[in-house]
Amino acid sequence: MVYLLMDILERLEWIYPPRYGPEWGSGGIFGLKYYRGVLYYTLAFEAEAYFVYRDGVEVYRFEQVGTLPASGGDTYNAVDAVDDEIFFGGWVHAPAKYKGREKGLRASISFVNKYSHVHRYRVDERRVELLWKESMHDEYRWAGEISEIVYDPVNDRLLLARGDGHSNLGIYQIDRRGGNYKRITNRPAYKGAIFHDHVCFDITDDWIKGVNGIQCIDMVENKAKTLELGDMRKRSIDNEPVQYPVIGAAAQSHGRFFLFVRGGVLIGNPMDESLESISFIRLFDFGESLYAPRRTMAKNIGGGILVAYNAYSEALMYPVNELEERFAKASNTIVGPSTLVYISPPVTKIVAALGARITGIELVEGKILVASNTMANTSRQDASPIDTGYRGFIALDPDIVNNEPPSIRFTIRGYQVGSQVFGGVPLTGYKEPVLTISASKINKLVVYSYDVSLPPTEAEKDSYQLRRGRNAISLKEYGNSIVAFKLSEPDPKAIIRIDLR
Questions:
Q1: Within a domain: 275
Q2: N or C, which terminus of the chain has less Cβ within 10 Å?
Q3: Distance between CA atoms of 92 and 30, rounded to whole angstroms?
Q4: Which whole-number Å values give the CA distances from 481 to 283, 337, 347, 433, in the listed order?
Q5: Domain count of the fold of the chain
Q6: What is the value of pTM for the model shown?
Q7: Residue at a domain's end among 211, 230, 249
Q8: What domain range includes position 129?
Q9: For 75-99, what is each residue's pLDDT tens digit?
């Protein structure tokens, strides 16, 4: 058989419409990894792993895990590569078991065939091997998913993060042949990255409450070190409370560990706070909103970090109690577009405005390849026999990190923020940024301005009087700062707009 040599990007299917894949809402395109001339990614919830070469495309459907048809694959970007091997992990239903709609309930699925997995792909041989799988074989519960894979070059092993599930959570290790599998820590973790001679991960004992610590594995001494974050208000450079810092992505740059969470980013040295403590810098915090760097990537590009803050990563469609009604309202209220943000301290810059969510970022043949989705990962009784989103790719020029930023509007309702600090919007590159508040009463507004200085410095504050009706405040004087805001008194009827242009 003769294959036509083409560029990798010419081989891509740029749009994946809804197809069979029983799960909650929509998955996405995860695990983007361009390595040694092959582009790997997993299409969830169809449970299809793609390996795109110049001369063709190989597709693996997780048949080594169990019986087909499968669904799932990966929804956290668990991938790493070394030598001639790409390691990818996640979870998969094999076979998928859609239970359908039950009396008095919306649709559901069975987790009895849900497996967590780690695979190895040999690039030169174009061969997939299952290294490990695990299942609880329970109707309603599952074993901790693999949400991160970090190669440990000192010990020639893979470190695995497991935080999403009901058993066997924590940091695990496995060797490159699938042996020597064992637990290192029992604190649930989702994301991690190499930091100096350690590999650091979040600690998320309760995913709704968010990150409550950082755990680091010493690759030299093979010991675990733990840092409890405590009261996050004391770590915030604006000295204000931090609500629901749900984990997003991890990275390292400029000699610091970065942990991106809902509402901002944690930066510092988790191994030794006497050198530099962990600080919280507020970014894209919109109160009762799930706008967050969830189920996406943070990529080192050009010596900085490119990360996505997503408008619609997770949602609840059919609430059954008061708490779920609040969650559904928050998750389905869209405050603005998803943004690609480039951080090169002290500068933080919005470089792209995109749709519902960004699930992957990778440099491929001179382009920044971005994976996107139109639909959220939903929950509870929101199951469907198909993936309900349109997944796809867009290729961007790397010069976006230096070009003018896109025009954007964020719209926030007063009931979402109350009298809590909100915002954390980067103004870099904008000539006429304006904050407009349509207030229902006389009030006072505090504006916080800061940047990602290393080490971080405390935010500065200014105050403005608000009258009843429309108030327009120019943010031009804050230059390349990041700005956040606070109403002295709650105004549930207020409409707040941040226009960046």
A1: no
A2: N
A3: 13
A4: 12, 20, 8, 11
A5: 3
A6: 0.97
A7: 230
A8: 1-144
A9: 999 999 999 999 999 999 999 999 9
